[in-house]
Design a protein that fits this description.
Elements: E1 5-10, E2 13-18, E3 24-28, E4 33-37, H1 45-66, H2 74-93, H3 99-102
Antiparallel strand pairs: 1-2, 2-3, 3-4
Length: about 110
Amino acid sequence: MPLYELTFAYEQGRLSMRDLDGDMEVIDYRSGRHERFALARDGSRWDQYRASFGKAISAYLQSIREGSPPPVPCLAGVYELQFEAGIKRSIAVGRPIILGDLFPLA
């Protein structure tokens, strides 16, 4: 069983992802394109995530040491948490939600 399966359906297409090591499928109804993207099977997205996380933490700590702004603004992290909370809420209620209504940031 995958850790997650996520599908974004919109008027002109669909984007589907399944687990960190699964393929990503993109369908564009306007052009009729149907593409599937996959990692080389000799590695894991977990390995990529671990390496990426290490780089992000190093860059953040460097910004603290130098007294410079962080490479990714704090609000970007808040938006990510809002998005994740929205996914959980949508699953719990079984329907789409409007993030700004349930989790306003201003």
